[in-house]
Amino acid sequence: MRVCALAGGVGGAKLSVGLQDALEPGALSVVVNTADDFDPWGLRVCPDLDTVMYTLAGVANPETGWGLVDESFASLEMLSGYGEDTWFKLGDRDLATHVLRTQRLRAGETLTGIMGELSRALGIPGGILPMCDEKVSTMLKTPAGLLEFQEYFVRRRQGDEVLGVDLKGIEDSRPTGAVLEAVSGADVIVFCPSNPVVSLGPILSVPGMREALAVTPAPKVAVSPIVGGKALKGPADRMLSSLGHGVTSAGVAALYEGLLDGMVVDRTDEGERENIERLGMRVLATDAVMGPGPDRERLAREVLRFGAGLKA
Amino acid sequence: MRVCALAGGVGGAKLSVGLQDALEPGALSVVVNTADDFDPWGLRVCPDLDTVMYTLAGVANPETGWGLVDESFASLEMLSGYGEDTWFKLGDRDLATHVLRTQRLRAGETLTGIMGELSRALGIPGGILPMCDEKVSTMLKTPAGLLEFQEYFVRRRQGDEVLGVDLKGIEDSRPTGAVLEAVSGADVIVFCPSNPVVSLGPILSVPGMREALAVTPAPKVAVSPIVGGKALKGPADRMLSSLGHGVTSAGVAALYEGLLDGMVVDRTDEGERENIERLGMRVLATDAVMGPGPDRERLAREVLRFGAGLKA
């Protein structure tokens, strides 16, 4: 079975590693949001791609879910000593990823090609695919003005109300050949429990991506990132609310209407089954909150079984 | 008293810190060789500038003379994990210097401006001045072919015979305004005990630099990097020999003929006095091999006293 997952950062990475563990080596491709990418100190940092890569390579920091395990921050301290504002916590080992990526981008390689090389070097058998090779930047409209995503997310700790989302550059982007192949070749397509607005939203906004998903016959199933009216992680709940969406699994399902065949929700949200089914989706209510280690593979297997059963 | 020193890496940095200790804060400007600069992983690394800067800031590694004290190498290990060849030992804290410099160069700042900012941030009162703002690259002709300086110096551990030196880009370089001011405003000019071929050689080859030194009335004095027919550090002795120069203090003096008023040699080389005086220079024979710590200031004071006495 070949699987294509769409993912943002930490939540997406958790289900992705469960899928990797559940599948034959090389059978998983993860299409990852790149609209959070930014360039501190002139280095291209791709938070979601790297979180997925480090997690699938087994070198992610298990406490935070992002960054590297056993990380040090000597370089950042030196930057601080030079008077730099170091709100973005670049670790020493993480820095190597950004330095190499930046060098290769400047040399004309594609982000897709670079992530392929880096993830293979870390021993990942499947594909970690940027949603596109063009630069797209999520800009958030807030009462404090337009904020770059990392400014909002890291520096201001998601304290601003999000009143709108602008994906700068999205109109000039297109799905890569690798993404189109992963979508068309998949037996099941999984929308990870990532933020539907700022993680999966940009992926689905790449011109041609929704069409590619629509034409492939593979069943498409999402795992809800909202459980009991709250986000498992991050600001998705407040963001859905301030943008006028329902802060429920059904609210998330509504954002994916027309794309999905099935929705996996937590047992807590069993009561939303009818609202979701009304959107033309089947529902699996299970333990959708992943615990550590093997629980991620357990959920992945349930999602795949549910997805495969939605065929025809 | 205002002093302008010309310096390469470790040897130049040692005398420079002695001069800094001997002088009023801000009275020292060090003009530094940049022809060893190169761009590993797309980052501009300036070995001599950084050795001088770290030494004057009191944060240099006292064991090696270059690099930072208490340095770690987590980033380099990660680069190695990505399959990179890591013969150039970039430390984590050192990396911060290169990342910032590269970012600012790309933003259009001059190397002179950047080094000013970085060295001020590290608390250095005087000026650390690149010999020029243009990129110059020392290329060495060897039996193994043309080698970039760091390739020869670090990767191949100075094992190749140097048959010729080519300073790529030197014809398009010129002394910066800061260098010309430091030279014309100095009361004494000191040639540090650096390699006369590949450290001070490039500085003196910047078109206009010899002329600027010639017209300033300040006495000019060099400290010999050769003691008893051997280089204090590095491959200067073998290089002088293979290029057909005398491997003596007098041999070094001959390379500076017409530029210098005086030469400081070690007592060991007292016997070379006549040969050097024949080149039109006065000679001070003293303990020219710097020990650790305060001995650097001791030599600096002797050099300055000798230099100031050569006036008129």
Spell out the key features of this protein.
homodimer, alpha/beta, Rossmann fold, seven-stranded parallel sheet, three-stranded antiparallel sheet, 12 strands
Task: Please characterize this protein's 3D structure.
2 copies of one chain form a homodimer. Chain A is of the alpha/beta class and 312 residues long. The first copy, chain A, is built from 13 helices and 12 strands. Chain A has a 7-stranded parallel β-sheet, with helices on both faces. In chain A, strands 5-4-6 form a 3-stranded antiparallel β-sheet. In chain A, 49% of the residues are buried. The model of chain A has no long low-confidence stretch (mean pLDDT 96).
Relative strand content of chain A: 15-25%
In sequence order, what are the helices and strands of chain A, one letter per element?
EHEHHHHEEEHEHEHHEEEHHEHEH
Instruction: Report the mean per-residue pLDDT of chain A as an integer.
Output: 96
**Distance N to C terminus of chain A:** 16 Å
CATH C-level class of chain A: Alpha Beta
Largest protein-protein interface: A-B, 33 and 33 residues
What is the β-strand count of chain A? Answer: 12
Q: Return Rg of chain A in Å.
A: 18 Å
Query: So, the CATH homologous superfamily of chain A?
Result: CofD-like domains
The total tally of domains of chain A equals 1
Strand order of the largest sheet of chain A: 3-2-1-7-8-11-12
